[in-house]
Amino acid sequence: MAAPPGSAADLGALRVGVDVGGTKVEAVALDASGAVVAHARQRTIAGPRGVAASIVDAVRALGVRPASVGVGVPGRVDGARVRDAVNLGLTDVELGTVLAAELGVLVELANDVNAAALGAHAARASGVPATGGPGTGRAGTGAGASGAREPAESLAYLNIGTGVAAGIVIGGRVLRGADSVAGEIGHLSIDPAGPECACGQRGCVEAFAGGASVARRWGGGAEHPVREVFDRADAGDARAAELVAGVAFGIAAGARTLALAVDPDRLVIGGGVTRIGERLRAAVLAALRDSAAGSPFLASLRLDERIEFLAPGESVGAIGAARLLA
Amino acid sequence: MAAPPGSAADLGALRVGVDVGGTKVEAVALDASGAVVAHARQRTIAGPRGVAASIVDAVRALGVRPASVGVGVPGRVDGARVRDAVNLGLTDVELGTVLAAELGVLVELANDVNAAALGAHAARASGVPATGGPGTGRAGTGAGASGAREPAESLAYLNIGTGVAAGIVIGGRVLRGADSVAGEIGHLSIDPAGPECACGQRGCVEAFAGGASVARRWGGGAEHPVREVFDRADAGDARAAELVAGVAFGIAAGARTLALAVDPDRLVIGGGVTRIGERLRAAVLAALRDSAAGSPFLASLRLDERIEFLAPGESVGAIGAARLLA
């Protein structure tokens, strides 16, 4: 996937996408067909200057001439501005303006989970027939535009990482929302008696299922605390089993929220916590089936059949970022 | 607002919208500017034939020549088909096909709450600047289409009636969803220890705030049970006060869900239960402020400032139905 050295001119101007993580910055270049033709990775340096430099270095390491650069970054993204990306040390930075000046191309920013949703959508858009045809809400005959039809396949991506958030793609576009918080269902309370959340509420989806919350509630200093919790639960530890049940409860509730609010064609789950793998998947499916067993309405949603987990190693963040610019 | 008798030919072909309620069918005709130029009302007759006849009669009573007819109807609407509209006796009916044959025009169906959302959107679309301009996520210069911009003002309408459901309008179009359940947040559980819901779950938004659930939990046979509950709460009845607090908790959670999932430009609340008026509004605002007081994140959403209640008598269902066809 790496570009041969010195091939920049041969490749022409390409769409570049960058995913900014807490430890690494990943960049890809897409050709006109959307295929990844170059890939680069840099260590993330924190702080406004460090993050910008890490991104610029990753883009240059691609060895291509970018036509545009899309960047997925944690925090609240509003235009060229990034706020509240605490782990990266970005309190309030005009990151887009800095990058556009440095790189000399059009730069578009998005929240990293929104960019990943677009990447997951791109990877799946061709695999499913677009909506339309039967069931598009039209009876009778005649022409005329419809005010009530989906323009294209929709997708919701639920990211279970350090925190929990979703990205929603409707009609091929990320739904950002009026205040840049669309998809922030991690901070929806699903149990007023649930665990305290860093946001100040109780029983948020993130308080149950987010990696940082699970680690905090578990305690200790394991390198992979969520994995340790799953291992201890398997070994019969009751408190670990309770935390595991909470993770499954939180993810199932997040999936239900997206299904009931947005009802996407595709409902994809990914993020660092899901690297636990099959044990996590089984726990989430069991939680969904338990709740559906008591409710014909929930059962009719067939969520256990509809949810998909990102494949291990499926990289959607940088690819989605490249697609922020059409 | 009624069309003068015999004026059908003068008015030309108009968009007609019909809202099918449990007791009455309301029809309106819109001129090209979207103004209501005729209005009619019929008693609802239950059952597949009765409902179709009530709609046809209401449309004919308008005294206009319809160019198209949009119909908002309870239940799950999928193309020309209506399912699960229990109160109307519509288990599974090709209502759209029947109406198109009877009326000889293009007929479009939608769930009644979705149609009302479109009506609320139409009434507000001109009052707010469309999204775009600052904060559209573009840094740098140059042309090129964006894959991440909202096409137009978005709105979520939360209907608190016998049941609870929402309608979502994005880019001027109703979001129907893959399985016709988009907006069905009434059946999101927000408290695993909460009251039983008719859907089989516990602690659904609808179990807390839906009129039928409140009436069932209160008991007795009052004609307006929700109003009685509010009156008894004002008089110091502890159980009534608990139910009122639950109604406010449910509506606040529904509003939060829509804000976090969709983050609409406009968040409008209406439906039969909201006819309680100022006491309900005050209780919902207090619930929103209470939760925001403990959470800077929730406070930043300013939900107490963003929610709007439909004005008493504001009729959005039939007007929205007329706009189902552009």
Which terms would index this structure?
alpha/beta, 14 strands
How is this fold's topology laid out?
The structure is a homodimer of 326-residue chains.
Chain A: H1 8-11, E1 13-20, E2 24-30, E3 36-43, H2 48-61, E4 65-73, E5 76-78, E6 81-85, E7 90-93, H3 95-103, E8 106-111, H4 112-124, E9 138-139, E10 155-160, E11 164-170, E12 173-174, H5 205-209, H6 211-218, H7 225-234, H8 238-261, E13 266-270, H9 278-293, H10 296-300, H11 303-306, E14 307-309, H12 317-322
Parallel strand pairs in A: 1-4, 4-8, 10-13, 13-14
Antiparallel strand pairs in A: 1-2, 2-3, 5-6, 6-7, 10-11, 11-12
Helix pairs in contact in A: 2-3, 7-8, 8-9
- What overall geometry of chain A do the principal axes of the alpha carbons give? globular
Task: Give the biggest beta sheet of chain A.
Answer: 5 strands, mixed
Any low-confidence stretches of chain A, pLDDT <50, length ≥5? 1-10, 127-151
The helix content of chain A is 25-40%
The SS-based structural class of chain A is alpha/beta
Tell me the β content of chain A: 15-25%
Order of helices and strands of chain A: HEEEHEEEEHEHEEEEHHHHEHHHEH
Give me the oligomer status. Answer: homodimer
Please give the count of helices of chain A.
12
Largest interface by Cβ-Cβ < 8 Å: A-B, 87 and 88 residues
